[in-house]
Amino acid sequence: MKRAITPGTFDPITEGHLDVISRAAQLMDEVVVAVAASHKKHPLFSLEERTALVRKACAHIPNVTVQPFDGLLVDFAQEIDAHVVVKGLRAITDFEYEFQMAALNQQLDYELETVFIMSPPQYMYLSSSIVREIASLSGDVAQFVPPCVLEALQEKFATN
Ligand code: PNS
Q1: What is the β-pairing status of strands 3-8 and 84-89?
Q2: Could you give the residue numbers annotated as active site?
Q3: Contact 151, 13 (CB under 8 A)
Q4: Which residue lies with its CA nearest to atom 1 of ligand 1?
Q5: Using one digit for the tens of pLDDT, what is the confidence trace for 75-123?
Q6: Cβ-based neighbours of 37, under 8 Å, separated by 6 or more
Q7: For ligand 1, is residue 72 a contact (CB within 6 Å)?
Q8: From the CB of 14, is ligand 1 less than 6 Å away?
Q9: CA 57 → CA 14, 17, 100, 150, distances in Å?
Q10: Of 17, 66, 108, 144, which is the most exposed, with the fewest CB atoms less than 10 Å away?
Q11: 54-66: per-residue pLDDT in tens?
Q12: Model pTM above 0.90
């Protein structure tokens, strides 16, 4: 049984994240999407909101479950018995950051393998931060996020 973990802040989940999660779900027996607390990033959506949105967005993928975590990724991976971390790799700028995290996670737990899935061209430049910025300026992000996220962004910026 190959259980993988796909971690991220998902503030909010985008179509790019969903693409990586779906591809991971085709390769692995089971995928746990781990929503990080990421306190230092001061997320727009709370951990509970982000987790609920990821759950809704992934509800159609049978071998995917979603769990929040607060702490080290290597500890959470051990807790849920996952031995593979799957991350998406977009444009070249992602590489250094992802390489650093993969290398450090390997130092912390040699048994935990990180594998990368290439984003397709249409998602190469998509990021949660760009989605937040466009939405905050009343731009249309419908093509970049699942419908539940679109609704949540509209609510968030209507009341702020
Ligand atoms: O979507 P993001 O914000 O790029 O994801 C980054 C994330 C959540 C995967 C990373 O920050 C993480 O693993 N955080 C948990 C804390 C941790 O283990 N930090 C050390 C990483 S080497």
Answers
A1: parallel
A2: 17, 41, 90, 128
A3: no
A4: 8
A5: 999 999 999 999 999 988 888 999 999 999 999 999 999 999 999 999 9
A6: 47, 68, 69, 70, 71
A7: yes
A8: no
A9: 9, 10, 29, 11
A10: 108
A11: 999 999 999 999 9
A12: yes
